Input
Amino acid sequence: MLFDLKNITTGVAKGDFLLLAKSLTSIENKKEGVNSFLERLIPTNAPIIGITGPPGAGKSTLISSLIGAWVNDGKKVAVLSVDPSSPFHQGAILGDRIRMRDWYLNPHVFIRSLASRGHLGGLNSSMIEMTTLLQSAGFDYILVETVGVGQSEVEVAALADTTVVVLVPEAGDEIQMMKAGLMEIADLFVVNKADRPDAATFANHIQQMVMDNHTIHWSPIVLKTIATQNIGITELIAAIHAHQENLQTVQRKKKLMLNKAIQLIVADKIKSIDERLIEEKLTIALANSHFNIFEFVKQFFNA
Ligand SMILES: Nc1nc2c(ncn2[C@@H]2O[C@H](COP(=O)(O)OP(=O)(O)O)[C@@H](O)[C@H]2O)c(=O)[nH]1
Ligand SMILES: [Mg+2]
Output
């Protein structure tokens, strides 16, 4: 039966993800009954870890290594991978699937590719709902992969407990551009492809930026990895755990939840906007030569 948390959890425990997959689809499609199901969820504190960075940085390869380590440790891992829905990216989606192929049939691993529907280049609009379901279904770690182009890395930071920004040594120019934004969202920086020249210099450069920007709560850790050879993964996991521990203060958790609450409230308010009605009134208002947009929208406030 759809929307039956007990059955979903029993399935997940056995490595049968069919009901979970169907429920996630229903959440995405905002099917009837979804809200009362969500209201009854009992999420654990399983960490939601955002993995973001430019295309080709090695996010999927890193995720594959993390899964390997955690599954080895008897843990259950869920991955939500947000692929740009553009058909131009289909090659990349295929690439991800091949790289993570080993995990697709593993009973401890659930992987789901999502379209970034809803926002331009952003995150799928049901991310908070889906990650909360995964937290309630018995997973120990929830990984969210997003391509860091534009807004999506900021959104993933609002969703994730720990945000890992993956960069490669040759990203020098890119990081200059994204500098300020990245500093705000990154809890951990991973310089992947450390087998390439200049990795150490680049990591030092980021370290310097971190020291200039750190907050009193948390100073982002900078790590080097070679995802294809599983090098640096133990250190990455230790850093994720260190950050998780740091998060356990009420203040930090509250801030994350406040962000999510606001997103959900805004999403609900948007639903109540009657575009047809606004258009009708606009047609009339525009016939007036003294149209003023502020005066026009006032009638819709606090309706
Ligand atoms: N040399 C090298 N190549 C890597 C490393 N990690 C990933 N790659 C390769 O980089 C390419 C892109 O990796 P992928 O994980 O799909 O990147 P994503 O787009 O960020 O998910 C693939 O061909 C990987 O095999 C690494 O540490 N060193
Ligand atoms: Mg990928």
